[in-house]
Specification:
The chain has about 130 residues and is of the alpha+beta class. The protein has one domain. The chain has three helices and five strands; from the N terminus they run E-E-H-E-E-E-H-H. InterPro entries: IPNS-like_FE2OG_OXY (IPR044861), IPNS-like_sf (IPR027443), Oxoglu/Fe-dep_dioxygenase_dom (IPR005123), Plant_2OG-oxidoreductases (IPR050295).
Length: about 130
């Protein structure tokens, strides 16, 4: 049943579900830890007044007194760190004090331009291509 939408080019795009699919949306922190290998995406769920759907949200966060950034094993000379290391408490202070204006806060931890991310897109695992 439809209900999941993603944001692309400032528009909400409904995704057609695969039968018996189990969908996992990757969060911003996992995008940072995987050095962009897995990308988070702005998404939302909509209500269907005719049919029931079960959605479950689960969150896992690192301890507040730690720091986070790309896993060292995912940073090489060919693929430099796309995100800087940031304190977990600092990240959440900024995350929860921002305006709700899309998927923007994780970009504060990004290094430089998106060029390294674009180079990597060819090797990313993509579950669903939206055109």
């Amino acid at each position: 049943m439809e209900g999941l939408q993603i944001s692309k080019n400032a528009m909400w795009i409904p995704l057609k579900p695969f039968p018996n699919a189990f969908v996992v949306n990757i969060g911003d922190i996992l995008e940072m830890v995987t050095n962009g290998l897995y990308r988070s995406i702005e998404h939302r769920a909509t209500v269907n007044s005719e049919k029931e759907r079960l959605s479950l949200a689960a969150f896992y966060s690192p301890k507040l007194d730690g720091d986070m950034g790309p896993a060292p094993s995912l940073v090489t000379a060919e693929i430099p760190a796309l995100f800087r290391r940031i304190g977990v408490a600092e990240y959440f202070r900024g995350f929860y004090s921002r305006e709700l204006s899309g998927k923007s806060y994780d970009q504060t931890a990004k290094r430089g331009e998106d060029s390294q991310m674009k180079k990597r897109e060819g090797s990313c695992v993509k579950e669903h291509e939206v055109v």
